[in-house]
TrEMBL record:
GO terms for molecular function: FMN binding; oxidoreductase activity, acting on the CH-NH group of donors, NAD or NADP as acceptor. InterPro entries: Flavin_Rdtase-like_dom, Split_barrel_FMN-bd. This is Flavin reductase like domain-containing protein. Gene3D superfamilies: Electron Transport, Fmn-binding Protein, Chain A (2.30.110.10). It holds the Pfam family Flavin_Reduct. SMART domains: Flavin_Reduct. It comes from Palleronia abyssalis. Residues 18-171 form the Flavin reductase like domain.
Length: 203
């Protein structure tokens, strides 16, 4: 089949998010400019640079997390794993702005080193980030549609030492999960090694 998104797809559910998948989950903790804590997962999230490490996430609708990033310039990305999948999903509820999602989800905040928003205690890894740019996402007609992207530089990285195997972060041991469209998720249980063809000694 072929369809133009602007004209609809005729399927029971939109396939776009399932095609562009799996996607890492941006489980983001922020503070408002008045000090209120917010914790929420974002499915439009990814790394966008390595030197320095940078991440980007976008929000459809100007929600609490993206507002806090815009107002304070700081956020923390907590790694979503199978061990904390239910808690991650709990933080996706549409809570009022004054609700600290750590409580309802049964999570414990832990102070960050270089930014003010807390990270989640016990996560396999966490990225402390500072916003470098806030970007509107207009469509072809110029309509921004309350789509806003935050780009952040990772200024500090926390790793649970138990998740390191032979000097590498072990995604299988961590049980990293990803968003796969619809209400589907994926857990990392197996990896395969495939070096670039032009890497010396790779064959």
């Amino acid at each position: 089949m072929f369809f133009e998104p602007a004209n609809g797809h005729g399927l029971p559910h939109d396939p776009f998010r399932a095609i562009v998948a799996p996607r890492p989950i941006g489980w983001v903790s922020t503070l408002s400019d008045t000090g209120l804590v917010n914790l929420a997962p974002y499915s439009f999230f990814n790394a966008v640079a390595g030197r320095p490490p940078m991440v980007a996430l976008s929000s459809e609708g100007i929600k609490d997390s993206i507002t806090n990033m815009r107002d304070t310039g700081e956020f923390v990305v907590n790694l979503a794993t199978m061990a904390l999948a239910k808690q991650m999903n709990e933080t996706s509820r549409d809570f009022d702005s004054d609700v600290d999602e750590f409580g309802p989800a049964g999570l414990t905040p832990e102070p960050s080193k270089l930014v003010k928003p807390p990270r989640i205690a016990g996560v396999a890894a966490a990225l402390e980030c500072k916003v470098t740019q806030m970007v509107d996402l207009p469509d072809l007609q110029g309509d921004k549609g309350q789509r806003l992207m935050a780009v952040g530089e990772v200024v500090g990285i926390h790793i649970d030492d138990a998740m390191l195997t032979d000097g590498k972060f072990d995604m299988v041991k961590a049980g990293t999960i990803a968003r796969c469209g619809y209400w589907d998720y994926q857990v990392t249980r197996e990896l395969f090694d495939m070096p670039k063809p032009d890497v010396p000694g790779a064959h």
